[in-house]
Amino acid sequence: MPYYEKYTGRNRDNYATLEDLQKNYKLTIPDDFNFAFDCLDVMAADKPGDLALLWISHDGEERRFSYEDIRRLSVKAANFFIAQGIKKGDMVMTTMARDWRFWPVLMGLHRMGAVAVPATYLLTKKDIEYRMNSASIKMLLTTPRFNVVQAMEEALPNCPTVEKLAIFGGSVPNEKWIDFDAGFEAAPETPVKRDNVKTDMMIMSFSSGTTGYPKMVWHDYTYPLGHIMTGCFWHRCEDGGLHFTIADTAWLKSLWGKMYSQWLSGSAVFTYDFDRFSAADILSKLEKYRVTSFCAPPTMLRFLIREDMESYDLSALKHCTTAGEALNPEVYNIWMEKTGLKIFEGFGQSETTLCCWTGYPWMQPRLGSMGLPVPGYRMIIADDDGNEVDPGVTGEICIRTDEAGGGKPIGMFSGYYKDDEMTKSVWYDGLYHTGDTAYKDEMGFLWYIGRTDDVIKSSGYRIGPFEVESVLLEHPAVLECAVTGIPDPERGFAVKATVVLNKDYTASPELTKELQTHVKTVTAPYKYPRVIDYADALPKTVNGKIRRVEIRQKDSAAK
């Protein structure tokens, strides 16, 4: 049986209706639950030779790992950290890109009770100093790629809590650094004693904040089981399948799609450690390795549909999902036309697991909708006072965590590390405030508007960037776009579009007028972009989210 059944009591296919799922989906979690012991070790015992991880390096090296391989290597990783003086509760930062070692390292840290702190290899000296000091990092494990070691060397004199430095996959820079590969290989396979309760801190992530420094989001040991709904239900990972989520291990999104619930459903994880995203390259990997389920952010999907997709054999692909930002209908329609597959949207944050989605088997995707809340999450649309608003009224997406609402959902964060004030600023009176806006229709479906900071207030109207971007993307000239607000003396803010053109088009006043007319024709005229800038590329996070905040900051600095 799929391993998630041990904790849910039922197979996903045995729920008769959506009402049945929402009413009867329950999780039973032991007080000392630890994914490494209770899930990975059980899988390794039951099916030791089955594929757990298929890894492709940036230069084409291929490695396959069974569940027993990951179990054994995770024990060695745990013993390596113990030998370095790492103890339960110590913070270990990993900047590992998509390297295969991440999987046994994370399981090893879970196993011995240290707190995993994934981080991106794109950090600067200032970024590193902030993260090391704010989280009291004790040990750092890093890749030698992307020049990240140089930035770390510059930052370390100002990071007094860091006691150990380890590097893998390359030469040791100097005597301060430990050769992880040598120590990992030499580490014993002696069993490590379980020493945790389910409410202990297991993982901490720096969120990609839109303003100020990133927040430190921490999750306890129940977090992996909160993702049963993510992988087993939304991704529809299947026993013997191969799931591919495009995400870097720096972000919790990688754990949505590259570890916990994929294994709980019996699916192997496919990961490709590419240096730069190439749509043709990704399509060739989907074809060659017969990927069965696939998740990518809308930004990347927009590039995939521009390729000659019909020339690739994607017949093994059965299910597609997307998250990270709202999905434009144009992307959905072209993907459906070229693959015959629907794209099922999902919504969540670093602070949550999947909490809203469109993938229920009893319903069809509603283009542009976030879908319905998942079991365990009680989501409302609230006004500024925290009161639930009527259908059709835009408000903030909030999650009920009071006892009347069922308490804190399994998989939801436990707070911002070392920042009670920040935690209380978003989580109070039994509501967690997501900072995202939407409205709910009469049937309960949520429709995304945008981040609170992204919503444009112009001449009394509230304009979400997504709706304008979706219309612009329907025009054949537009490859990508980002809509933001710029100060306007008459309107408060005016709508601005930053546009990346397809290769056959050239920026001109005539094209600007054409795009503006297109928006006025397709949607309410007050939403049209009064300013259009053309760019070669849009600023994005490592995982492909458009950083509208960066565009706003540049506009503000240019005033």
Q: What is the structure about, briefly put?
A:
The chain is built from 19 helices and 27 strands. With 559 residues, the protein is α/β, with parallel strands linked by helices.
CA-CA gap between termini? 61 Å
Count of separate DSSP helical elements: 19
Q: How does the major sheet shape up? A: 14 strands, mixed
| Residues in helices, as a percent range | 25-40%
**Overall average residue pLDDT:** 92
Low-confidence stretches: none
- Give the overall shape: globular
Q: How many beta strands in the DSSP annotation?
A: 27
Task: Please tell me about this protein's structure.
The chain is of the alpha/beta class and 559 residues long. 30% of the residues lie in helices and 23% in strands. The protein contains 19 helices and 27 strands. Strands 1, 2, 10, 11, 12, 13, 14, 15, 16, 17, 18, 20, 21 and 22 form a 14-stranded mixed β-sheet that branches. A five-stranded parallel β-sheet has the order 4-3-5-6-7. Helix 4 crosses helix 5. The longest helix has 17 residues, at 67-83. The mean pLDDT is 92.
